[in-house]
Design goal:
The protein contains two helices and twelve strands. With 173 residues, it is mostly beta strands. The protein has a single domain, classed as Ribosomal Protein L25, Chain P, CATH 2.40.240.10. The strands form three sheets. Strands 9-6-7-8-2-5-10 form a seven-stranded mixed beta sheet. The protein has a three-stranded antiparallel beta sheet with strand order 1-12-11, with no helix packed on it. The relative contact order is 0.22.
């Protein structure tokens, strides 16, 4: 069996029942301040899976101070409308960089439900219930689709198949 078929098979079993939680890589974090967001952090209940309500619900913290990925933040322009997943659209009102960290300000408009042609951003509120965790990604063990008799296994082994990094992970109040 080829690796991509094995990955697709595993995904078909895991994806429909796997709960979704948010994490932002610590070393690539950017900050987003929602100027009209809740003054004090508040929790709202949301589904753990976008397509399967049977997976259950979780509390999501909404507040003024958010973490987003720097890779998303770097291409955002002042005046641009962005979509904060499971919150709504926001208009970016400011952008700066301090100490190598991108900082954005925006105003959210929960009544704006036109999500076409906007960048979709995953986010998490800065909150005392958040914690740090080491997340691990496992990449393909070999670098070819299929090993045949003409290939030496040692020539196609992925030496960097294990990747670990520290992330901010959402907690709840």
């Amino acid at each position: 069996m080829e690796w991509d078929k094995l990955w697709a098979y595993n995904k078909s079993i895991i994806d429909p029942v796997c709960p979704r939680y948010s994490a932002i890589v610590k070393e690539t974090v950017a900050k987003l301040t929602i100027t009209n967001g809740p003054k004090a952090n508040e929790k709202r209940t949301q589904d753990l899976h976008p397509k399967n309500k049977d997976v259950g619900t979780k509390d999501v913290i909404f507040g003024q101070n958010l973490y987003i990925e720097a890779g998303d933040a770097k291409d955002i322009e002042i005046g641009e409308k962005i979509t904060l997943m499971k919150w709504g659209n926001a208009k970016v009102t400011g952008k700066s960089e301090k100490g190598g960290v991108i900082e954005l300000t925006a105003e959210v408009d929960e009544a704006d439900t036109d999500f076409k042609k906007t960048k979709k951003l995953h986010w998490m509120s800065v909150d005392k219930s958040n914690f740090e965790a080491t997340l691990v990604e496992l990449d393909h063990l070999i670098t070819v689709k299929k090993v045949d008799d003409t290939i030496k296994v040692q020539d196609c082994v992925n030496e960097n198949s294990y990747i670990a990094y520290t992330s901010h992970v959402e907690g709840c109040m």
